[in-house]
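Example 3.2
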Amino acid sequence: MEKIFDLAFHGAGAAKITGILLDEQVPIPGWLNYSRYGTFANIYADAPEKKRYAWTVAQVKSIVRNETYIGNTIHGVQTNISYKNKKKIRKPPEEWLRVERTPTRPLSPRKCLSRCRLPTGAER
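Structure, written as tokens:
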């Protein structure tokens, strides 16, 4: 993960980062969970080796935009319509509860996240 943030901090886009991770055969987080804890066995148990390194641009964007990696915790991102209907709806960001500096070791320096923001389609 630190490599992803380092590349993003130095100006690499999501597609370039994905290419580097694929070239260097860095395992994806799902494969690491499977190899350590046995989770996702239905996906990785009999999968070909290339699935271990199957990074996508969407995964890289999701990681770079996730504030958990700088030590923040965000609550109330989604809610149910009612207690009877279990469908989830996403709340607007101004209604989220953000707890900064959650007592865990962040993987990326706080100052890095603002510079690591990857442009969305509308911003290009």
